[in-house]
Amino acid sequence: TGAIVEYTATSGTRDLKSWTYTSATLKINGASGTFTLPAAKSVTNLTVAAGTFDPNGYLLTGSGTLSVTDTILVDAATFDESYTGFATTTLNTGSTVNYSASGAQTVLATDYYDLTLSGSGAKTVNPATTTISHTGTISGTAQVLLTVNAVGVDKTYDATDAATVTLSVNNIFTAYAVSPSAVYTATFDAGQNIGAGKAISVS
Fold this sequence. Notes:
Number of strands: 19
Mean pLDDT: 92
Helix content: under 10%
Number of helices: 0
Distance between the termini: 57 Å
Radius of gyration: 22 Å
Low-confidence stretches: none
Order of helices and strands: EEEEEEEEEEEEEEEEEEE
Shape: elongated
Strand content: over 45%
């Protein structure tokens, strides 16, 4: 109870030992090393001080603190399918969370220092509740799904249900230029009748 199991290899990829870590703090402290889970495991705390932690397709269950100062990979569909149960998750200055799966993933809505989307497939991000304080990176063939906002424009009555909207995207990946398509169809849901504050459908 209260033990710290520390891995310190500074290069290459190493499988963690198939030990029981349930009552221990698992500490990754090997700069430039990658450390992979050999199976689903439980820990009290996970501390990634230096190096990369790779869940390797398995679930890591914690009960205490997940603290990241270097890099962790998320290779499941969601963050909680790679790391679950931790009472506190702290993404420190210098940390990177890399959503690296070959397939669709939903990015956890939280505050990131560095956020990387890699691998392939669609990565869904909610920019209203997700922030990147340093760098957002997109690599491989990953595609980012962002929310497009539409605001209706007042119109002069013309006996049709056609509507005009202004489109915008809240893009948190500032290194990449993103703009919504100029081609869309917008109609008033309640038809052509005159009214204020009418709902609009956009496609």
